[in-house]
Write a structure and sequence with these properties.
mainly alpha; two-stranded parallel sheet; about 150 residues
Length: about 150
């Protein structure tokens, strides 16, 4: 798990994401942003850091994405409900028509659950996530109180 996350962080670094790394290994084969985002949606619930990096990148670079390609890649290697959360949260910060297209194509999670796995494993943190869940997460059947920084 850690090695895959490390590689994703390196790929985000290469894409200009807000990742603190000295450098990316030269042998790392560059992938398109759509592929990196799609795979990241499968790992965001494991890593809050990855979630915030992907969200920040989407806010700043949405107009560079191929929406159809992102949806295709996410269907095969990621999680559409997580993509929905990311796009919905990014749209709150920077409205853009591509976010609307992506949100419309993403279904919410099948059941309500705590978003971050580490929070779900901690009874006190899980209770806070339930009691103080941010609306954008609730819309996607997730519970998280960790998105306060988006408030203007």
């Amino acid at each position: 798990m850690v090695d895959r996350l490390t590689q994703l962080f390196q790929e985000w670094h290469r894409l200009g994401g807000a990742v603190l790394l000295a450098q990316s290994p030269p042998e790392l084969v560059p992938r398109r942003a759509e592929e990196v985002i799609a795979e990241s949606t499968a790992w965001c619930r494991v890593s809050g850091r990855l979630t915030w990096i992907a969200l920040d990148w989407l806010i700043r670079h949405i107009d560079q994405l191929n929406t159809a390609e992102l949806l295709r890649a996410t269907q095969s290697t990621g999680d559409l409900s997580v993509l929905g959360v990311l796009c919905d949260a990014a749209r709150e910060r920077r409205p853009h028509p591509q976010f609307d297209v992506l949100i419309a194509a993403c279904p919410p999670a099948p059941r309500v659950e705590v978003f971050f796995e580490r929070v779900a494993r901690n009874p006190l943190a899980a209770r806070e996530a339930r009691e103080k869940a941010v609306t954008v997460f609730r819309r996607w059947n997730y519970l998280s109180a960790e998105l306060r920084y988006l408030t203007p």
